Amino acid sequence: MQKRFGRQRLTCGSIDHTVHRRLFLQGSMVGGVSSVASFSGLFSIPALADETKKAGKKCILLWLCGAPSQFETWDPKPGTETGGPFAAINTNLPGVQISSLMPKCATIMDKLAVIRSMKTTPSEHFQGIDALTRGATPRPPFTRPILGSVVAEQLGQLDSPVPQFVLLDPCPEGNEFKAFKAGNWAGWLGAEYGPVRAGGSYSIPNIDRLDSISESDHEDREALRSFFSRKYENDHRSAAAASHNAAFNRVKGLMSCAPLFDLENLPESDRDRYGRGAFAQHALQARHLIENGSTFVMVANGMPWDNHVYQHEMHQMLVPELDNVIFQLIADLNERGMLDDTLVIAMGEFGRTPWLNDARGRDHYPNAWSLAMAGAGIQGGVVYGATDPLGFDVIDGEVDQRRLFATIFSALGIDPHAEYNLPGLPTFHRVEDDAEPIREVLA
Amino acid sequence: MSAIVCIAAWITAVNCIFDCVVSHAADAQPAAVINQQLSARWKRDHIQPADRCSDRDFVRRVYLDLAGRIPTVQETTEFLNDGRDDRRNRLIDTLLASEDHVQHFADLFDALLMGRTDDSKYAERVKHGWRDYLETAFRENRPWNDVAAEILLARPDDKTQRGAVWFLYERNNQHQAIAESIAPAFFGIRIECAQCHDHMMVDEIKQEHYWGLVAFFNRSKNENTPNGPRVAESAIGGFSEFANLTGESSPNRLAFLQTETIDERRPEKDEKQADSDELYVPASVSDDPRVPKFSRREQFVTNVLQDHPLLARSMVNRLWAILMGRGIVHPYDEIDSIHPPSHPELLDWLSEDFANNGFDVRRLTGMIARSDAYQLDSKRPDDVNDPSTFAWYLERPLTAEQMARSIQLAMRGTFQNDATVVSSFRAQFLDVLPDQVEVPIADALYFSNNEKLIGYIRESKAEGQLMQQLIGEASHRSRANRLIETLFGREATKDEIKAIVKYLKQRQDRMPDAIEQVVWSLLAGAEFRFNH
Fold this sequence. Notes:
Chain A is α/β, with parallel strands linked by helices. Chain A has helices spanning 2-6, 15-26, 30-43, 125-134, 147-155, 175-181, 215-236, 239-249, 251-256, 268-274, 278-291, 311-335, 401-411, and strands at residues 58-63, 88-90, 97-99, 112-118, 165-168, 196-198, 296-299, 342-347, 351-352, 364-365, 369-375, 382-384, 386-387, 394-396. Chain A folds into 2 domains: 2-22 and 59-205 and 258-291 and 295-441, 3-Layer(aba) Sandwich (Alkaline Phosphatase, subunit A); 216-249, no CATH class. Helices cover 35% and strands 12% of the residues of chain A. An 8-stranded mixed β-sheet of chain A has the order 6-5-7-1-8-11-4-12, with helices on both faces. A two-stranded antiparallel ribbon of chain A has the order 2-3. The longest helix of chain A is centred in the last third of the chain and has 25 residues, at 311-335. By secondary structure, chain B is mainly alpha-helical. In chain B, the strands form 4 sheets. In chain B, strands 1-2 form a two-stranded antiparallel sheet. In chain B, α14 (309-324) crosses α15 (344-356). The two termini of chain B are 47 Å apart. Classes of the chains: A alpha/beta, B mainly alpha. At the A-B interface, α2, α3, α7, α8 and α9 of A face β7, α19, α20, α23 and α24 of B.
């Protein structure tokens, strides 16, 4: 623990303060370097000898940033003044309908748990993203770690060459999400639990061996380096040299996973099946990473769901892609026997208004919205909670971000109420206020 | 006993002890004060410090710390052959007077004051005179308080000083960013936490200080004049309220910690301030922006900065960190009540001495380099773990520029400060004074697979360059000897020769590649990567 918090200066650990110094040094290079910084962070601690074999559960978060409409997805209100133009269709769960934009998910509702009673408070993106990815509204100046960091810390294999927390985001833009991405994701857990960022224009610099050296020479050269460098380390009892050598020690392993980050290596048939959109391709890559040892993969695509303008037209494009992605992902995980250990979550930071604005868009609406989960620890075929006939408010089973996170942690076998051990900071729990998980959706 | 009385009593006690230790040594040889203060702590804590470092270790170390590069084989040999007893002090003086020292300190302070950036912004810093301003400051060893004042007043009265505006100008009217960078740069404190609330742990840093520091600069505005970029200042405006976490609001007065709040009439509610020529005087330089009669920047420089105790203290602590691997207060830029100095009397004395001797940066740098502690072996002694004892020389990674110069020198015998390898390193190794050494795997990947770095090694094959010399050597053994001597500045051991010879022998069919790989294995190792 000592080491982990060594870098987190005793200022106060809040978002801006802890990253500020590095950002300052990086100056205007923030964008380009942040991926490197957090990437390297994940591996900068030595493997912990006492790391025991973890439960083996994993998680894919389909992060629908910008916030999709519940009306055009999981909670349709067909034929009402708020329902919009799309019909509702029957599903393989008797009596349950979802939007006609999701015909494929309609066939696997027995595997999904849908929550129709999300009720949260932040109505702006940054605050919404913050609350719904960390599981709590902020308590400045302290920074709660993001879901992926907590799961990587709890379930990850730190000595694995494969990154444990990966953010796949083909679009580095995204208004408030872009700003959020530049912030401190791992919070008080420390930068080593931040995500490796890949996808699209993100790449891992210097990951490929140069053509000018053969694989065996590359290895032998490292062995020679190590001979000299360890000699120095031992002679000087040098912690700095130990850290230096530990970093080189991981090079080979990480280079060996470079292909995991290369979409071109995935079978064409899989790529066609998921669809050629960036989000779909990266969802496929997420499956591939999870299969190969990652613990938490968050798939985003900038902030495309924020449809203040032409909501119906935009959703008509976005929702079918999401429908197919969820369907393919669940099918693949199921076929590979991985669904029982892999939690899939599809959600945004809030919902959309029942009414349309002047631009025929739906605006931000945290008051009553929906999300879906499947896989590890989740009871399929459950629709939890309900909204009133026009979708203005939750009438049954209110769920806020704390209950949601208690549910997610429980599904993954992580104690939702454990206390963080944070010397010098106030007492924090993984989920505050003893918020109860939703028992009905837990397997 | 009240807290104040307690502190007063403590100060008296400290002064008393201190007078006894210091008074005689002070004039004779300032480095002796450092020695006495550090050894007193070693004695008290029963610490056996490391041995004095060898001349070989010293010469590499002091070139890196003062000249920003490793010595050449010839420079090392010259030093080792110097039989005079005071050869170390002589070398320190020579290096402090060298142009390499100027370049090295300009590199360091550019990173510390301005932050790392990209090539186009570095080019702007050169174009608009900032780099030249820094170099001149160190070349002429200008008093640090004058430099600080010029940078923050940003009103150059002749062309040679024009770069002084760039500290403010580059921050592009971002007044909070300006305040947040002034605090560590010239006061050695960090105030970001006090933006939204009084600092939660550091009691003395208040929210009014944050917004006060912003207010001193929030009438400033970038202006492009016929003389080049300047930072103009308005005589009106800049009044606002800031709210704390409970929603109470307060006016942003001209306040800063450890100084008296400066009076300024605040406009009444709904009073609209009118700007008029009468509120200004013309600039002393034609075409420069007019100057407000009541200039907040000038108020800050005159009434806050000049006599502020942290001005000297922050520079002392930072120079100490540069030379010794960590500050007497650690981290070096958090000189506040929750980061007590490891050697309070020493920090007091050095700060006072620095201020009393004209804020003479070179004098202080030399003083620290001449101290016994600076010249200790870098091998950590048994049973000593606390780096704040300074009982051994603390290793530190070479900065990007140190690394780039040293590799050039080793591979090609000369270096250029604007070589492409410099910009490649600068983009990779950002920190210059890290709080602790943690090597990211990205750095290891960079060494392992970066085309520019590896290409640079390979292409060092012109007449007189290392690759060409190595290929020309008669045997693998002589190759091994030359390599270790050139890159590590020492003789090779038997084991090392054996390892290199074996590696080369196995690759007789591809000798240039094999030699290049051996060079890499030494450059990418800890012995080269760190100053020790």
